[in-house]
Amino acid sequence: MKTLWLITVTLAVLALPGPTGAAAQECAPDGDVTFVCNQAGPEDLVAVPGTHWVLAGAYQPGNGGLRLIDARDLSTTILLPSDALRERHDRDAYPTCPGPMVADAGADFDAHGLHIAEGQGGVHTLYVVHHNRRESVEVFELDARADPPQLTWVGCVEAPAGENLNLNSVVPRPEGGFAATSFRPLGGAIEPIIRGEISGAIWEWDADSGWNKVPGSDTAGPNGLEISRDGRWYFIGGWGPQALIRVSRGRTPVERDEVPVGFRIDNLRMAPDGTVLAAGQGGQLGGAGGTSNVARVDTEALTAVEIVNHPNGELFGTATVALQVGDEVWVGSLQGDRIARFPSR
């Protein structure tokens, strides 16, 4: 990854009037919580560097792909599936990729974990974890010079054969390639993870050496993944231990620390001030009694402050990601049709 602090959105979100009529009523605030609607299971969110655009994954069966949100007026454009998608297989960078399948998958394209490696001149690399047609990280060129940004599929990396990985989150590495978490074995149960049993780890990939497991990263339900700005640390969203886990990179012996947050961490996102926003689920899993939670974690002081604790309801629940957008924190979910917007504290 060329620059890793891509979560910063260089904008001030304005208090603009929302849609009118029935659409406005359907997307009306819930108390002091407002929404970005017209989504499809926005499990992960990522800001397009240096722009007013936010990418949201669509993680619903038969309604998958990518949504592009204009943070100025909260309008949403379906970026995938789209006839505007281009395909140009970079066989030198991704020689083992069988070939394109995104256009063919259409609305069956699962967009799970997202991350962007910032490039030069507004042309970036977008990584998307995908499960449906193959267990893989799909790679796109994202041209933010266009309005709206233009996607070109350039390659893929399939999960390593024989390892039975269930990929979840992805993050580019400063030296090239990327790292991804495997939450649990494909088809594995949730109950052992809740009991604290080790279920997965971080796996790194580059074109020269392929896939390799990161020492010291084995965890009960490794979910979200971020990397420090200096490249010295991985940060894991520990779903089972309910903690952010800090693991050193390239150091022997491996250094590892945990920052408890009191809820099951899903995705992680770097905030503009260098802290990490950890989002996830508190209380009872599923149904009444559950909460959507966000903590701001200082990864140097190893402290956490909870900034969102929202009871799950009919309009929004099961938080999976938090992204700072201007003076708000946007919170996504693996279900439903909206992103919740909370004032940043």
How is this structure best described in words?
- By secondary structure, the chain is mainly beta.
- The chain has one domain: 6 Propeller (Neuraminidase), CATH 2.120.10.
- Helices cover 4% and strands 45% of the residues.
- The strands form six sheets. A five-stranded mixed sheet has the order 6-10-9-8-7, with no helix packed on it. Strands 1-25-24-23 form a four-stranded antiparallel sheet, with no helix packed on it. A four-stranded antiparallel sheet has the order 2-3-4-5, with no helix packed on it.
- The protein is globular, with a radius of gyration of 19 Å.
- The chain starts with 20 loop residues before the first helix and ends with a strand.
- Mean pLDDT is 92; it is low at 1-22.
